[in-house]
Amino acid sequence: MSFWGNLIGYQLVWFAAVIGAARGAAWPGLISGLLFISWQTVTAKRPEVELRLLAIALLLGIVIDGVMAQRGWARYATSSPAFPEHGAPWWILALWMSFATTLNRSLAYLRDRPWLALALGAIGAPLAYLGAQRGWHAVVFAAPAWRGIGWIAASWALALPLLAWLARRLGAASRPSIASISPDQP
């Protein structure tokens, strides 16, 4: 159920955030994101790994979507930025953190496949943003749209393999190795 709960839960957060933003409200994305993140963290085998990954995803979202907003390459339907004026809106940051929970569950297979993570980031992320634009106008790319779409493709092509690698690395670091167990321990 962890795989399916995570996969379906993330999709529900995405729809709540995008549709809410399209209607001028950031709170559906924030509340659904916080509930989902809480559920995924509480049920995680290693909550400390999950929290570190969430923090890194939050920072990536602040930078990647913040740059896009500050450069004017895209406009968000709810322009309540989490940080400086014209920064990434709260609902986008909730999506970034919600997405991070998939890397130890429904997208765990990406942890050992960096090239697949790169391709999925480069193709899947722009498609998700375009879906948010065309379906609901939650995000609108400024003309010429290739700048914003290119930025998202390039950024996610780097961010997703990084997050997948960190999910693997942080998870491995939190487990004791055989060499670290002393003979005096049971």
TrEMBL record:
InterPro entries from the UniProt entry: DUF2878
Superkingdom assignment: Bacteria
Keyword terms of this UniProt record: Membrane, Transmembrane, Transmembrane helix
Pfam families per UniProt: DUF2878
Keyword Membrane: yes
Coiled-coil segments: none
Transmembrane region(s): 12-37, 49-68, 88-108, 115-136, 148-167
Name of the protein described by the UniProt record: DUF2878 domain-containing protein
Source species of the chain: Dyella jejuensis
